[in-house]
Every structure is written in structure tokens, then in C-alpha cells.
Amino acid sequence: MLCDDDDVITPTLVLLAAAALGALLLVRRHQPPVEDATTTTLVPAEPEAPPPAKTRRIDSDVAAAQRRHCVPLVRWMNAVEVRSPLYLVSAQFGADESGVLLPTAKLQVEGAFANLQRALRDGGRTIRDIAKLTVYLVHGRCSLAEYRTVEARYIPRDALPAVTIVYVVALATENILVQIEAVAA
């Protein structure tokens, strides 16, 4: 015995046994059809249910009432339930593919969304998989109208995520005017 302390060994053995049982059940579930010992009939494997939707968009009367104060400035979904592993995209900003910062606020928003699409694609996701966006705009240098014009072209109305827009004094460098973070499922 490696250790005389039953308080350490017992939980460890329980975890190992549970892991082994789980692996055995997983292997058994995914086996091809097998022949029943009493007859020559094949017993089909249990059919798998289709995977559930990754997200469910939730809206409410309260959210609709809140929107009266913001429309047409902001589009958002009140809540998004995530039913699959999260994919977190750090802040994307308006640089072209070679890393050169784009010259205007509107072009930077375009660049940020293009970079966001690439980051999502790298993880096997699309814009429609976004559950939450956090957008940072430099106050006085990137307007909500400039952001919204571009955002409306990238995010379909039937796939609106939960959104938070924050005005800031500055971002990582003086000339970055917008950053967009995303949580996708």
C-alpha cells in the first residue's frame, strides 16, 4: 500500500471506480448491434437523440419596456441560455489582416467584426453562435451610430445576443477606438 491514510485512499478509489464505470458505460452505449444469445435476431443499438440547440434566446415584457428608452439606439436580447461549452473571444479591435490599425471609427468597427468572425470560425463557430457581446467604444471618438450601422449588417435579427455597450476614456492604445468581446456557444 502506498499510503496508510484511509481518508486519502477511499475517496481516490471511489473516484477511480466511478471513472472506470463511466468509461465502461460509454463504451457499451456506443457498441454496434449485437446478436442476442437466445435468438439469431440482431438487437439494434439505442438510437441517439439529436443534440439540443446550443442557445435559447429569452425575451420578456420587462425587456420590451426597457427597450422603449433605448430604441433605436441598441438591439439586444434580454437573456440567452447557453446549453453547450462556451467559446470565449477576447477583445477584437479594428485592424486589418496584416495588423494595421484602420484609420476611422467606422472602419475599425468593420475590422473588429471581421476579426471577430475569423476568431469564431477558428473555433468552429459563427456570428449566430454568439450568446453575449461586450462592446467598448472610446467616448467622443466612436459613436454608437457608427457602431450600430456596422453591427446591423453582421448580426441577424433572429440571432441577437445579450449585449453590453460601455463608453470608455481610452483602450489599450490611443488609436484603438472600439473593441468587441464575445461569448459564443
Automatic annotation (TrEMBL):
Molecular functions per Gene Ontology: deaminase activity
Family: Belongs to the RutC family.
The UniProt record lists the keyword Membrane: yes
UniProt entry tagged with the keyword Ribosomal protein: no
Native species: Chrysophaeum taylorii
Protein's UniProt name: RidA family protein
Pfam families in the cross-refs: Ribonuc_L-PSP
Species lineage: Eukaryota, Sar, Stramenopiles, Ochrophyta, Pelagophyceae
Biased composition (Low complexity): 37-46
GO CC, one annotated term: cytosol
TM helices/strands, residue ranges: 12-27
Annotated stretches, region: Disordered: 36-57
Sorted UniProt keywords: Membrane, Transmembrane, Transmembrane helix
